[in-house]
Amino acid sequence: MKKHVLWCLALMVLAACSDSNTENKEKEGVETVLPQQVNEVTVMQLAKGNFNHELVSNGKIVAKDYADLYFRTSEVVAKVYVKNGTYVRKGQKLAELDMFKLTNTLAQNKNALAQANLEMQDVLIGQGYAPDNLNAVPADILELAKVKSGYERAKAQYEASQYDVEQATLTAPFDGVVANLFDKQYNMPKNGEPFCRVIRTSAMEVDFTVLESELPLIKVGDQVEVTPYAAAVGTRTGSISEINPLVDENGMVRVKAQVNGGDKLFDGMNVRISVKRSLEGQMVVPKTAVVLRSGKQVLFTVDKGKAMWNYVNTGLENMTEYTLVNPEANGLKEGMTVIVTGNVNLAHEAPVTIIDDSE
């Protein structure tokens, strides 16, 4: 009996020791898995400053100045001196028509004008006036002499044929590049259609649209960056030249900006437009400072070593920053310390340690 009792006591002691060892091991495991963590954060001082707003849109390049050139008479094209893409100077020859019939008509009309002039002089002599001093001839007598001699009709025909000869040669009205030239030498140009177009490449514009709600954010003179989707063409700069004061049925407003493209930008080219403007007196915070909690925007400030939870409403944004809308209503004031990083898993009144990230 005594042996049995001693045996039971021994088993109980062994069991107690085993439970103690298990409890110690579990405690050690928990301490290993859940070590004491310190919330390290970086901060900034809340203050009003300039916000560099960026508005992005898509648009097309359009030529501000261009000229569609026509031949005024129907003759065979004798010479074509340029082709599409040729850069031309003001006054440079582009193409000309066959001149035989035109110069022949001009010579005939010149002779007819000379004959009419002689007949007018005969009429004036018959009226008793010297033909070499027309200033002394009364206006009604001079007009009668011109009508009877056919001088005015002959003069009009001569000037018309002279104009046809001049227009038979197309010249560039300004420096630019040739486009839409499709007619060939030795062929008749198409009636009513321009022979070619000259585009002034030094004065290109970009045509784009902005939302009605974005109108307060832009004004004439704002700087723009224009980036063509053609990879070989780099970014160009310009400025807004006009804003159409009309909102279309889709709530969009058309805007134009002048851009210096040189010979790299083509009429009709698709581009990406970035309008940049600096707004003063804005409460600006980095995007990393704003986190979501239950679907709402939250910004943490530091007070006595603890993270304080503040609801915020953001307004404008660019690539890296937000502006705060009416921050005073949410208890935010200039000079408060705002947590910029290390706030992803923070809770209200969680202890934090500020670190210096400038190194």
Keywords, separated by commas or semicolons:
359 residues; alpha+beta; 6-stranded mixed beta sheet; 6-stranded antiparallel barrel; 4 helices; 37% strand; disordered N terminus
What does this structure look like?
With about 350 residues, the chain is an alpha+beta fold. It has helices at about 1-35, 100-125, 140-150, 150-165, and strands at about 40-45, 50-65, 65-70, 75-80, 85-90, 95, 170, 175-180, 195-200, 205-210, 225-230, 235-245, 250-260, 270-285, 290-295, 295-305, 305-310, 315, 320-325, 335-340, 350-355. Strands 15-16-17-21-1-20 form a six-stranded mixed β-sheet, with no helix packed on it. Strands 2-10-13-12-11-14 form a six-stranded antiparallel β-barrel. It has a four-stranded antiparallel β-sheet with strand order 3-9-8-5, with no helix packed on it. A hairpin with a 2-residue loop joins strand 16 and strand 17 (about 305-310). The longest helix is centred in the first third of the chain and has 32 residues, at about 1-35. The two termini are about 80 Å apart. Residues about 1-10 and about 20-35 have low confidence and may be disordered.
